[in-house]
Amino acid sequence: MPAAAPPDAPGVRSTLPSLTGLRFVAAFIVLISHTGYLFFMGARPEDNYADYLFVVGSLGLTFFFVLSGFILTWVAREDDTRRLFWRRRLVKIFPNHLVTLAATVVLMIISGVAVTVENTLPSVFLLQSFFPMQEVIQGHGINSPAWSLTCELLFYLCFPLLLPLIRRIRDNRLWLWAGGFTLAVLAMPFVAQLLPDQPVMWWGGDMSWWQYWFVYHFPVTRMLEFVLGILMAQIVLRGRWIGLPLGWAALLAVAAYGVTTQLPDVFAWMSLSALPLALVIAAAATADVRGRRTGFGGRTMVWLGEISFALYIVHYLVLYYGPVRAVDPMHGMETWSFVEAVGDVALTIGISLVLAWLLYTFVERPAMRRWSRPAADTAVRSGQRPPGGPAPAPVPAAAPTPTPTPAPVPAEKPEPVQRKEPTLLQ
């Protein structure tokens, strides 16, 4: 017998509030990584606390990439089309991105930061991670975290092509494929050794920019984590989940992070935690399906999870141009007292949360409601027209509208099972 029964009947998928809550945890980890890195780098440069915080941000990013593959597979509909899927995905990411990009350009001009073709134009079309140039991806004063949206855009373009192929994998070989992609992720730093060893990264060490870009920024490399998420979703949906509790999966992820911090150079940036985080996602999803409490599926955590994308895309602007003023070469953390630095970091986090709520409320959610599906599809969902049928013709005012006689309903006919709309819509 399989280790666990499939979570739902065919065509019916449960909501996954815990994964929505965990999205906020991942976004908040990235925020703490960026703010904490500057804090410890300026306050105590002789310690290596900054390295631990810098690497922990990569943990949150890996979680997002694996989660994308898992959730898109979980909510995939048989009646969906590539065009509709791509439309929803583009509407999901571009409004937030373009608004924050415009804000970035304005803030750069006000602060005297040079606006160039390199640090602006590739970002407009979310192509920056395909350019192995530090000025394009990590230029001074730009909204650097937006580079990951280049990876997400590639994931979205490839997903309708990947899912049918992965669905052909036999049930008893899913874990074998998951292990194979995990090994491929771990092999990327070794492949990176073939790339030029100059120029070196600005924070020192023996890692070159080319090696770092290939392992961490190159969208094709990060695609491996996305596919791992698709495979893990198939494992859960087909009843091949091993029943690992969420707590144990989380401990494995923490252990993987601890090992990663001790690895040298480019090896510290590989996604050693990809498989443990995939196990966390699968365990949380299974707990939600079975009605178990995880601590991440409450109303507050779900709301925070819903604004997590906005938080991720806006927090770096607050860090650069807010109280910390990281855009200044000699920002205050190098001279402030510990209490002053902590106060400004806390203020940065608070402002980021408020701006994320505003961005989600007035940009992301209205854009999704207005443009994520065609007007005809919206009419079908609201019951104004039948699926696949023409729009109802207007009835002349003078013509009486006949009252239809309802057809008899068999007493024993069960109610049709309605598809559950997922809490996590990516």
From TrEMBL:
The keyword Transmembrane applies. Residues 18-359 form the Acyltransferase domain. Residues 387-411 have a biased composition (Pro residues). The chain crosses the membrane at residues 21-40, 52-76, 97-117, 146-167, 174-192, 212-234, 241-260, 266-289, 301-321, 341-363. Residues 412-426 have a biased composition (Basic and acidic residues). Pfam families: Acyl_transf_3 (PF01757). Residues 373-426 are annotated as: Disordered. This is Acyltransferase 3 domain-containing protein. It comes from Kitasatospora albolonga.
